[in-house]
Amino acid sequence: MSTHRSTSSSVQRSSSSSGVSGTSKGSTRPRHRVEAKVAKRKPQMPNQIMVSAGIIILIIVIVLVCGIFLGWFGGTETEQSVIRNTSIVIHQTSTTSSSPSPETPSETSSETSSETSSTPSPETTGRSTSSSPTTPSSSSVPDVPDYEPFNYSTYRLPREEAYVVPRKYDLKLKVYLPTYVNVPENKILTFEGDVEIDARVHYSSWLPVNYFVLHMEGLSLDEENLEISTNGRIVPIHHMTYTSDIVIFYLSEKIPINQEFKIKLNYTGKVLKEPDRGLYNITYTGRNESEKVGVVAQLKAIYARRVVPCFDEPDFKAYWTITVIHPEGTIALSNAKEISSEKGPETSWITTRFHESRWMSSYTLSIAIGEFDYEEFDYVSYQPDYPHASYKPDYPGVKIRTYTTPGKTHLALYALKIGVKCLGFLEYYFHTKFPLKKLDMIGFSLVGATENWGLITFTEASFFYDQEIYPLESKYEVATTVAHEITHQWFGNLITVKWWDEIWWTEGIATYVQYISLDYITKGVNKLKDHFATEVMEIAFMLDRPALRSLRLKVERPEDIAGATLPLPYFKGAAFIAMVAELLGEEAFRKGLKSYLQEFSGGGARESSHLWFFLQLANERRSAPFDSSKFGPNGNLLNLYTFTLPWTTQAGFPLVTVDVLNSSTFEITQYPMNKVKDRKLSKDDSSAHGIKWDIPIWYQLNDNPVKFAWLSKDKPLYIRADTENDILVVNGDRHGFYRQNYDEKGWKKIIKQLTENHTIYNLRTRSSIIADAFAAAFEGLIDYSTAFDTLQYLEHEKEYLVWKTVKRALNTVADLGNFFTQCNDSTSYKGYVRNLLKPIFKPSFFDDVAYQSVDKEYLLPSSFEMNVIDMYCQAEAEECMAAYAKIFKKFVLDKCCDTCWAGQIASNCVDVPPPLKKGTYCYGVKILGSKAFEKVNEMAGIEKNKIELTYLRHGISCHDDKQAIKRFLRSAVEEGSFADVIEVFHSVDENHINDDVLFTFLSENWEQIYNRFQNNNNELRAVVEAGLSKTHTESDIQRVKKFIEEHKEANKIEAFSKRIGVIEDRIAWKNRNYEPVVAYFKSHS
């Protein structure tokens, strides 16, 4: 419940709760009366004159009544301005939907206009009131209306009564950072703000307004220096009311509809000391090797209100002019280009002023302050070579920079290269120019990447790459993250979701298009479109299997927004967008996006229905045969809105099942995947579940090309074929977001075909067959023996993406059955995997991996050879582990020492390709024992390179001495940063030698861990999840429950109760599957 406080001791409230009434009881405004005095005359006026006079009088009365109701006579507007405003309302209402957003400005932002304008250069954020507008005479001040409390139960800004929108913010911030200048103790890590907001009563507001609402959280207003003015005069503030994250300003008069007014506020706030949402600090190493403090803003989704009082919802877009006052020795960055950076009277402070930004949502506001270096690329010199590319940018170009803390710019060169190429490709792909003059990217964040207009923030992990140090996983993460955030400059920034309930479509488009752009700029080497189908889709299936939420959410409270930005919208949204793109065809899909962007090129906040409208037009204009996907399940043109509605509003996804109807017909039916355990599959209840989709079916019959048909939500799909001999596979090419299943004979025919000639199916189809077989086995629809039989052909499989699917499937089974541990049956599992891989593994794979790590175009996180090495060594194959131990002895023990020329620092002396370093340290410790452990532990203590330190910590966690592992964990908790603690816990979690150590350590050291992490929920949750990761038995459930009883604070940590549910699911899986699975391993070892 929110706590309210008021700045007025006498607050009048009406008993009504519906807002400001148009007939307020307290209004004493005199009604205008028209009195007609008619002289006595004998002749009567002609009827026509009487009728005309009556009409005139009626019009006058109507105008007067409307004027009183709409507040035309309450301000200083002239009659002409009233007429003008009225005409604007009529014109704009005629072109706006029934639920209007703040209107879109013209395409050209003021950032692209003349840059000669300047802003005063303040050295403090205080504002003189000597030039304030004068207070009007009492005769012009309307009567004070009644006040009714604003109803914040919807947690949304008003959009009917009191609909006020911003047009422009002029924000000045002075940030007090230590380590640069002398800062008073009470001001360290605080900031002073001064904002002037140009706002307007929206033309669709029901009534003139006597209050308006701003978001504000954790800020302190200077209530003595607030100022509201309109038409050059002050509007008195009657009183103000605060809640946890809003402030309501009640005025002493009404502001008419469409009237502009200014809001001037001074305030103070705190820089957060730990990574959080808002303006927070980061500690880093400065130029003189001393510890420095910088700040960066992370405002998505609802945290701009922690930096400035504002209209903090995505459709309340405005222009922003930013001025930052920061310590000498630092630089300040923001969304727009810098105008000037000058010393003021306070010689230890710098004032940096920026041009007016693009029209943008508050959450894309970005500020960073610190010691930064940069690399630059002048985009005008880059000429992308695209086939049939008629589109060329018609503006001078963009300066693209990558910023880092001192001495690290070389680590961001790969991000710069990818950024330049992605920007060029996306301008071509969307046929829409990038609208800013600069694009800065900075590796200076602790909470992920954010697509802020003109200043994208990244963590170092998603921004840095050096082929001599970093693994291929880092290269892949940098490429995909940069491509994703740059795509958001169009879908996310230029066009924004109207509300967070539909965040899925901008995230889905960005995730899907990032793979298209990267596939092109790396010349198809990485098969990234295939990677999308085999990787992104699988993650989406995993996240959506419980069917807990739909793509479109009901978002009403601030805490709901956190759920809207979880991974599901990114992955399922992308999978669904990809299915739509395949339905329309890539070219029609691209043209639809292009038309959408061109229609709303000025920016704006939109709903998914607008997207479907333009994609619908593109679909209707394409040439296609009648049996194609251009037409819907009913035979008419595909109605995209009707098709997409169940997919976006229903949770979960379909299971598509193929059965034999008779000797000449296959029958294809659907059922919600999350419901299959609740019933026995039968044809009679296929429509009883209530959740249905129109499903696009891509199917392959024998070795014929993939064909298309519709599985209607109302009836099965029938495919004519020789069901005895023909082999039918659905979801060929893995275009559809659904799982597949077959009757027993159907699976046997598919397995036989894979064994005889797997190449009739492309890698996407092969991967989906394996993934869906194991998913069906997990749900109890088929035996696990059938799923394992789909792997019999793998001796002939060379595609990395298929092997990645295999690795994921086997690891899931091993995790469920706890086969990675040293239990008796783990030998059967490891024997099975060794038998599977022995014909495939070659010692030369180590050399192949070393070559791939320096291939400039290769960026996948692994490879076929690396996958085989990982799985084979994990199965304790002696020849694999011995190869790693040999590398460890040669490149670590023999090469790194105090007297060696390369020294003792691992990042300097260990000349092992990055993809192999993790295994080298781990298996060196496992095979060579204490000597290797002591060496790795010693090197970790002096290593400064974070990536190398991660490798070393992984090696330490491979030791089988439980006491040594506990010392390793304790050292991290006592001395390491939050990130260090989480990394060490995860390192131990990855290794299965010491399964019982983590929870034991968590229990024994809980008080110390909780005290350290209790104010950081995300970090505490990560530590708890890692600490519980190896609990899997009934006795473990009792241990966790006992722990919760003894530590009351654990009741508030959801990870504990969730883990109990996970253990119960594992026990249920074991009861059903353990014995037959172990029997299969033993028979195939």
TrEMBL record:
GO biological process: peptide catabolic process; proteolysis
Boundaries of every Peptidase M1 membrane alanine aminopeptidase domain copy: 414-618
Annotated site (Transition state stabilizer): Y570
Residues reported to bind Zn(2+): H484, H488, E507
Region (Disordered): 1-42, 92-145
Superkingdom, taxonomy of origin: Eukaryota
One cellular component (GO) term of this entry: membrane
InterPro entries: Aminopeptidase_N-like_N, Aminopeptidase_N-like_N_sf, ERAP1-like_C_dom, M1_APN-typ, Peptidase_M1, Peptidase_M1_aminopeptidases, Peptidase_M1_dom, Peptidase_M4/M1_CTD_sf
Family, similarity comment: Belongs to the peptidase M1 family.
PANTHER family: AMINOPEPTIDASE, PROTEASE M1 ZINC METALLOPROTEASE
Name recorded for this polypeptide: Aminopeptidase
Organism encoding this protein: Haemonchus contortus (Barber pole worm)
